Structure formats: C-alpha cells, structure tokens
Amino acid sequence: MVKKSGEALLRAFRAGELDLETTLRRLQGVGVAETACAKLDVVRRERTGVPEVVFCEGKTPGQVAEIMYRLASEQGSVLGTRATAEHVAAVRGLKDCSYDPVSKLLRAGRVSEPFGKVVVVSAGTSDLPVAEEAAGTLEYLGSHVVRAYDCGVAGIHRVAKCAEEFVDAAAVIAVAGMEGALASVVAGVSPAPVVAVPTSVGYGAGFGGLAALLSMLNTCAPGVSVVNIDNGFGAACMAHKINLRSRTGKDRNFTKNVAE
Fold first, then answer.
1. Mean pLDDT of the chain
2. Chain centroid offset of residue 18 CA
3. Are strands 194-198 and 32-34 parallel, antiparallel or unpaired?
C-alpha cells in the first residue's frame, strides 16, 4: 500500500541506505496513488482527520469505479457523494457496498466504531436529502449521530423538544431552506458550536437557497459557521473535526467549564 512507502523510506534513511536529499525528494510523492483519471490523496485522514471522498457527480461510472476500488484498497473503506444508480452498478463488487438513494451516498468497506456526539437537526422533510448527506457522512467518518428532523421554526416548540440533545453534543448541524431561521434559533439555545447548512428548498424569493445562506451568514446568534448551499458533506466534515478534537482532549467540555 502507498501509505507504507513513507515508513520504508524513513527506515532506509535511518539505516544509512539513503542520503537526506534522496529521502526528502522521494517523500514528496508519498501518499499519492495514481489511477488513469486521478491522483488520490490516500493519507488525508492521517493528516486532516477526514479521508479523501469521491464526488461522483460529473464522473462516468467507469471513473467512479476506478477511483473507488483504488481508495478502498488503500484506505479499507471509501465514500462517494452525489452518486447515481449507474455509479452504484459500477462498484457493486466492492466489499460491504451500500447505497442510500435519499442522501445519494455510496459507501463500501469497514465501518468505524462511533464516538462522541453530533446532532443533525433539520427544518422540514424537504431538507431530508441534505440532512441525510450530513448524517451519513458523519457515520462513515466515525461520529455518533443523533437525528432531529422536521423541527422548523414554524412550530418552534419542536426545537425545544430536541434542545436537550444539544447539551452534551460536540457540535450541531442545522439544515434549513426557506429563510434559514433554524440555525439562529438552534444557536441561541445550544452550548455546542453550530454548523449551518442552507438548502435550495423554498419558493422563488428563496433564490435557490441564497436567501437562507444570507440569513445564516447574518445571524445574530454567536457560534455559527455556515457552509455552501446544499453542502451536507462539508458540514459533516466540519462537525466531525470538532468532535474529533473533543475526543482527543484538545477541546474542553462546555458544561464542565460552566460548572468550574
């Protein structure tokens, strides 16, 4: 596997089999697995906490298959986003292959033991595809997920009902279209940082999610970060990194700080 080559180079340098200049030059290419259509970053998880994931949209089934098979062999698992039925058919031979038509997530390989807690809260059922992209990505990465769906501000008591889940969460993802007010409401009651995801759900004046995006960017509730329209994957990566830092003890628990 590509990952092992870096260790081999360092051992050779330590043993005096390679000089420093040669070792440094060869290390520059370590972690890159090349296919006919892509250069794959197979050490991204070790470097950033999130492995390389395949954005299937715009790729042919053959390209997706080529990339996913190689990543699965290097990483032990692989995730594809925005996948279609054609993409799924091309990778059916992968071990433990599964597909969710709601989130359009295509995954294969081992499943990580879940840790920590991230809450995914959505405004309405129409936001479900984006919310599930976030939740499914989090589960693939290894974060424990709690779902709280159909909690839009038109019935604001629904947010209050799930607010107790925010208390011990490492992060909360708030998914909403229309005017995008859910993120502000959630941030106003959550001790955990909130990652806001505007969706393209809404009528004409919503401008395909632009109204929700601007509303979330203009929130008066502190502690909100905002990702791009319909970007459940990006929100999941942000929340997972927060969760990962909490697990490694580099981020202190909010409720403990209050108690102190």
1. 87
2. 39
3. unpaired
